[in-house]
């Protein structure tokens, strides 16, 4: 009789476990990422702090050769965008913050808004596998655009995309 109850209880526990796994979900990864806090060189330290329609996120590192060209280009390109519609965030992936600061200083970009992410939390959350990578995220946290690398083709795509998004 005890064996029979044990089997019944085990079966019920398995069924409840199965149902729970189907209907109870872990927190949304995007929500978690938005709540992370980062060391930065300006007054914001979380993705939640940005309020524009679109957040442009540029992933870079001081050792990234194409980043030598992409950061100054993006700085010039994005400073002409309407600030109510777009925010630009440069996410640095160097393990040593001083390397990033020296890199920015050499390019005369010390005033660029940077999150220092030495542990790669945002890189992992957004599945960034190459540098530079440029993402455009909408207010709902949905990825609208992903551009890998930096070349003339990417610049042309970006110009068209920004024009389209500005009109929305």
What can you see in these coordinates?
- Pfam families: Thioredoxin_8.
- Keywords: Signal.
- InterPro entries: Thioredoxin-like_fold, Thioredoxin-like_sf, Thioredoxin_domain, Thioredoxin_ResA/DsbE_sf.
- This is TlpA family protein disulfide reductase.
- The protein is of the alpha/beta class and about 170 residues long.
- It has a single domain (about 30-165), classed as 3-Layer(aba) Sandwich (Glutaredoxin), CATH 3.40.30.10.
- The protein has helices spanning about 1-25, 30-35, 65-80, 95-105, 120-125, 150-165, and strands at about 40, 55-60, 85-90, 115, 135-140, 145-150.
- It has a 6-stranded mixed sheet with strand order 1-4-3-2-5-6, with helices on one face.
- The longest helix is centred in the first third of the chain and has 22 residues, at about 1-25.
- Residues about 5-30 have low confidence and may be disordered.
Keywords:
168 residues, alpha/beta, Glutaredoxin, 6-stranded mixed β-sheet, 6 helices, 6 strands, globular, Thioredoxin_domain, Thioredoxin_ResA/DsbE_sf
Give a quick precis of the structure:
The chain has 168 residues and is α/β, with parallel strands linked by helices. It is built from 6 helices and 6 strands. Residues 5-31 have low confidence and may be disordered.
């Amino acid at each position: 009789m005890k064996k029979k109850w044990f089997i019944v209880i085990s079966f019920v526990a398995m069924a409840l476990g199965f149902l729970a796994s189907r209907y109870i979900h872990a927190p949304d990864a995007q929500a978690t990422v938005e709540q992370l806090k980062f060391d930065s060189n300006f007054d914001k330290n979380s993705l939640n702090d940005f309020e524009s329609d679109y957040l442009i996120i540029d992933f870079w590192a001081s050792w990234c050769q194409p980043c030598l060209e992409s950061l100054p280009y993006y700085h010039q390109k994005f400073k002409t965008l309407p600030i109510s519609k777009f925010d630009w965030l440069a996410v640095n992936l160097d393990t040593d913050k001083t390397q990033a600061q020296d890199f920015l200083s050499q390019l005369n970009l010390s005033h660029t808004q940077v999150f220092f992410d030495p542990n790669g939390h945002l890189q992992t959350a957004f599945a960034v596998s190459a540098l530079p990578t440029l993402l455009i995220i909408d207010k709902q946290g949905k990825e609208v655009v992903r551009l890998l690398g930096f070349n003339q083709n990417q610049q042309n795509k970006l110009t068209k995309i920004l024009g389209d998004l500005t009109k929305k």
